[in-house]
Amino acid sequence: SYRGDAFACILPDTSAAGALALAQALESRIRALDIPHAGSDIAGVCTISLGAAASSPGAESLRDLLALAEAGLRRAQMNGRGRAAMPDEDGTGLREARAPSATTGR
Known about the structure:
Distance between the termini: 25 Å
Shape: elongated
Strand content: 5-15%
Helix content: 25-40%
Largest sheet: 3 strands, mixed
Low-confidence stretches: 99-106
Strand order of the largest sheet: 1-2-3
Order of helices and strands: HEHEE
Number of strands: 3
Number of helices: 2
Mean pLDDT: 78
């Protein structure tokens, strides 16, 4: 399994729903490039897994926010990769989104 690089997108004035929607859109766009990846056990094409987090001003430190995003990333990877996940607003669980399959549309 290939281990790729990590990066962060800082999105001022973006809600939790907006951050998760953007993460899902990024995954969909990468998948839609249709770059062959024969060694993948997830899909026959390259995909990405994303963790997202959102904060209101002053609610969490940058370190806390990054830890939440990393927790979402780990959950996305544990649940099959090729998806986005983020903590629920109350921090007790994780919300997850998966891009529609290129073959099934669901």
